[in-house]
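Fold Annotation — chain and its backbone

Encoding — discrete vocabulary of local shapes
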Amino acid sequence: MNTVAIFGVGLIGGSFALALRKAGFTGRIIGVSSPETIRRALDLGVVDEGLPSREAAQTADLLYLAQPISRILELLAELDPWVRPEALITDVGSTKSTIVERAVGTISRCQFLGGHPMAGREQRGVEAAEADLFQGRPYVLTPRAPAELETSMVHDFTGWIDKIGAFRLVLDAAEHDRVVAYTSHLPQLASTAIAALLEGRAEPQTRVFGPALVDATRLALSSFDIWGDILITNQQSVQTALQSYIAKLTELSRVLDLDPSRMREHFERAAKFAAKVRDSS
């Protein structure tokens, strides 16, 4: 892998470029983004040059699609005539089924492998990129068949995933979408719901709040420009997760109404899970 083209030089794409460099990659890194973003990425040393989509695709060994999901879907419909047969296309979309299905229907000249690095922050843009973003974080791959992980280009790519400090997980695309509806999309919506509820209410305006409110609303800073595509392409799984969450809130409301002392078991169960999450992160 000598030439990497990053389509979407923002937080994830820019961080991948920086992580590759830190891990020892000495090849060429091309950025495909708006002229303003490319200028900033060049100033920051994130990419070596900027090129239009067609030229980048014709040149790259690895095409790293790090745009919003809607743009990834559009780009997958355009890339096939441009890519070289020995190239690998991968993406970082937060949902996988729709992207993998689109790739199956549009990419035939080279290999496509779905991916989702479980790393990020609320800030967007190349200015927020950091070389250590993937350290210790899961990097999910969603091949359609195990044999897709055995090609030489995938071996090269997954070797770099290891070198940048992430750890690989392999899931079916549909299972990935079901899982992240609970572990990623539900926390986002819970944070959004709390912040949306409190916006405009008098209570927070008193400034009588502590770190709990700050922590609980951290994800509410996330942009709908990113999350809109996620919710559209994982609607059914997110609905299922939301209904489970609503049922749990209803259960807590009922316990509070009938016997508040029984809240202890819910607190203890929740603390057990929260400790597990922190131990594994």
User: Anything to note?
Assistant: The chain has two domains: 3-171, 175-280.
